[in-house]
Predict the 3D structure of the following.
Amino acid sequence: MDITFNIGGEAGQGIDTIGDLLTQVFVQAGFYTFTIKDFESRIRGGYNFTQVRVSDKPIHAPVDYIDVIVALSRDAVIGQRDKLVEEGVIIFDDSIEFDDLEACHYPAPLEKIAKEVGGNIRMMNAAALGAILSVIKFPFKLAEEALNTIFGRKGEKIVAGNVAVAKALYDLTMEKFTGTCRYNLDTLESGPCKDKLLLTGNKALALGAMAANVKWVSSYPMSPSTSLFMDIVANSRNLKIGTLQTEDEIASICMAIGASYGGARSMVTTSGGGFALMTEAVGLAAMAETPIVIYNAQRPGPSTGLPTRTEQADLFTMAFASQGEFPRILLAPKDPVEAFDAAVRAFNLADKFQIPVMILGDQYFADSTMNVPRIDVSGVKIDRGKLAKSGPDSDYKRYLLTPDGISPRAFPGDEGKSIVSSGNVHREDGHITENADMRNKMVAKFMNKLPAIMKSLNPPELYGDEGAEVTLLTWGSTWGAANEAMHILKDGGVSINHLHFSDIYPLRTEKLRKVLSKSKQIVSVEQNVTSQFAQLVKMATGISVHHHINKYDGRPMTARWIVDEIKEAGIK
Amino acid sequence: MTTPEQLNPPQKVTWCTGCGNFGILAALNKAVTELDIPVHNLVISSGIGCSGKIPHYIGSLNSFHTLHGRPIPVGTGISMANKNLEVIVHAGDGDTLGEGLGHFVHAARRNVNIAVFIHNNGVMGLTKGQFSPAAPRGYVSNTSPPPPGAPMAPANPVAQAITSGATFAARGFSGDQKSLVKLMVEAVKHRGFAVVDILQPCVTWNRQLTWKFYNENTYSLQDNGHDVTDRMAALEKALIPGDKIPIGLFYKVDAPDLAADIALPEDVPLKDHVTNLKDVQKIIDDLMI
């Protein structure tokens, strides 16, 4: 079973709520789900959709064929029609006037039944759910159990109302809907999946940051990063986290740098445009060796670009941002599970090496939801790196020269120590200098951190056989679609493997060289137009990628799209 | 008890002979000694320019020499991380009335507990004398269009502070040590956003705003009777036109500061608070379906 539902309508009509309910029902019933959100940059109206893929096997990407469309507006009836499978169904509210009815169309009294049976138009969610489940003949008892759990916390009356509305539509649809769907699940038992934690990339990062003892987050709202900031603000009172919405991104990062100098683990969240404003201060953090974690949820640029859509085109701007040369780390978690760990690691690495650590997500990563196993935080370890011995020390030097380039930190307020930091070239005690010898020593200090930084990063992950002829090369969130594509091609007889990077800068090259040296056709798959990661690989290793697959329309990749591109390129 | 020896400069001062900054440094030394706050709890956040170098000329204090225009947000972060610290921002007029003016306005609005000392000399000294946002209209410099010089009116930091929501606004003069030390001490002690606009000559570049000019044209606001709790009166005094410049405390009121309303721990400084992992686990478990 691998089935996809698309719920479309205007912004503000509640398509997300229907999608969420549908997802929850399937998760509760034991299935793997993957949900994407496609929306326009507007508050009301337009045409948006939530697309839920459900499977009895693990899934990590959307597909571009739809089994059931639920349309809450006229635009939604036709919006994704071309993606409907042959036996697909379009359910739409019967209040929508639509003349060109075909067998696949099913006008359902969603609003009417919600009002009549549930007494509340809000129960249209349950009505839509009833209709959806009915066309695929999903056993109602499974749904009822799920609804009981989902609405359980809201009280018996809400549970009963929702179940009644869902049942009414379910039964009515059984009677009225004469078409067929390619799935008939009437003998379905509960599924094999035990993963009951629904997470987006942003939420996983927020949880990771909170577990990593983040104490200061200053941000300016910018899609698609904002939900991470919102999650931390929502928990700030409970966990004691200082949060502030600032006047701009320059203030955000400068405050975070100040708070970090003051001893608090600090983070900023933004997207490409906001990061552009932060650029100068990234260099301040680097020069003053003040740890900071920066999250960029990428969206298509340049400039405002496509504010609510996805792209992986900020790799270079993150890797090379700010004037001068200094060590930094870039992490690009592939999914929410990895995102939690990436957030924890980001704070530890920032403290350990006293450098900026950047996390690259993108709208697809940020907003897509999947169900994952419960995260157990008891294993989270906080590593604040080298700290100075407590107690007075009038000779304390914030930038003491050491073999590994890392100087023990102390914080203002520590008795008997003076903590002097500067964005100018400085001496070991932090006071500024223009001395050539000291300049050289301080540059060497930065560079001396690199061997340990390199060792602390995860090597790429290889999927499939090392000796395969074709290698898909990916980074960050394109992992899911590419991995699925690899399996499809492999099943089709192609000798193919998949090399994926989640820790992307500085680039670890040992395994990369080993795998790529055996591959006859290296294919980079990136959500950008200039194959930035492939260029980075070439820069670090001299190895050229043979084929580039690029998507830059702002919409996420699917396995089928990658497979088609590979076939079109004549790669066998 | 802080001794003058503790504050000896860690390195040689590079300001020009006769620079107004010497008066500000001397007053800061005296203020720090008078304040009776342990030096480890004092932090200077400075910007870029001649003023930005002040942390390197006073010993034992903590300091962060930041970016042009950004010492206020950096100072805000420091203050949030540790409420036991007294943060003093030293910024130039080019610094905080130019690149940093937005931060100045919003920090005032937030009433964050920092003291901002503006080294105001009307020029961009370190870049060799261009007109600053505080230069008078018509000020002739190497980047003002000739004639008539700076084609715009100067920023008014005291009025800007008062209208933006600062709870302490004052003007000092580098040549009037007694009054400047007093204003500095009061500004640091004040809980909230405190601004002292400090007039100082740039002896190398500014031929208009000189020691002589300030000595002849400044007068004490306090000697002439002024209610510092009256916001309209304070603004009126800050906007007095003409050549005579009042020096002193314009405005001082009490209001909740930023730290009072964000989720900082009550008992310990933010930097020392450790999130209980059990609370994070609960957040996760509550998300489980």
Observations:
- Chain A touches chain B through 75 residues (CB under 8 Å).
- Chain A has a mean pLDDT of 96.
